[in-house]
Amino acid sequence: MNVYQELFLSILYRILPIQNYLEPVYFYIYTLFGLQALYVIALYVTSWLLSGTWLSGLLAAFWYITNRIDTTRVEFTIPLRENWALPFFAVQIAAITYLFRSHLRPLHEKILNLESDEHIFKFLKAKFGFGTTRDFDANLYLCEEAFGLLPFNTFARLSDTLLFYAYLFVLLLMAAAPAVVAFQNLRMKYLWTSHMCVFASFGLCSTEVWGFVLKSVHLYTPQRFCPGMMDELSELREFYDPDTVELMNWIKSNTPKKAVIAGSMQLLAGVKLCTGRILTNHPHYEDKSLRERTKQVYQVYAKRSPEDVYSILKSFGTNYVILEDSICYERRHSRGCRLRDLLDIANGHIMDGLGENEPDLKASLYPRFCEEIKKNLSSYSMYFTRVFQNKTFHVYKLAKHK
């Protein structure tokens, strides 16, 4: 259910008479940017409803836009689930605010099936210090920078626009809960900052305060922000990644259109977008069965035998598997947070390198697959044939039969 947005959008694209002058990728991009406009409108309406004045809504929208570094990631990562979810969440908040202004109705709770989100509870338990976990999915979140602590320079940027001071003045107690979540989880910053925009503006709605704020903004904002904004608007750059471009071109030219390809989540998202090939594991992570499938595909970076890895990949109908040196030899994370370490822990194996291991972890009987396969040993070449490589990627074709 995680991609029903794209499914609906694809149907809409086929129905609307726009195929002749608008390519699918631009239709997708324009839709996402349009949703961000809806997001700002919803924040505007919510603040207006809370305060009773449109000036409060205008201030909420202004703060959201001027603090866009901390309120949204849409400008550099368009397909994020939050870019779909937050606009509709804000619309729901605006609708609930409107309904609750006049009368309240009893709310009936429903028992929800939380199986797909169980890894989140394990993640939160470990994040807040209530024990450790060996769960692969929870540890994957714990080690990701996006779920790390909030950088302190965020507060300096928010203070420059007077947003942070107003927020503390009006809603210090009410904002305690979402602030704690944002401190513990960097990704939640984008929900917290929109919350700040709405309620800080709502709190500053008296005539006296508004007079001071508008005078301050009039004198302070143009010289403080206009030069920087104009510089940002003048920057036009391309993302340069020749190895990935070479890989995508090779896949399009040298693999059948119905080829099934295995790899990391982040890479397969680009493979699907650029080549249209079939994927073994969908690059979204909110479904339990998809998480388990991804964990199995990631065994190519674990200490497993070639027979085991071949059987796992073949069970998903895999024709090609892409190995990334940046994952196999990862150094960005510390020991215990590298993907290969998370797999070793989940498999009950001792991690590589110097350092402590939990006492019940054991040495694996096999070397690390992603390293050993590059030696072209017969025990590996009988299952996997290398068909492409560059400085970053290695593509192996699976034998049709053992």
Automatic annotation (TrEMBL):
Pfam families: Dpy19. It is found in: Membrane. It comes from the Eukaryota. Its main location: membrane. One of its GO terms (molecular function) is mannosyltransferase activity. InterPro entries: Dpy-19/Dpy-19-like. This is Protein dpy-19 like protein 3. The lineage of its organism: Eukaryota, Metazoa, Chordata, Craniata, Vertebrata.
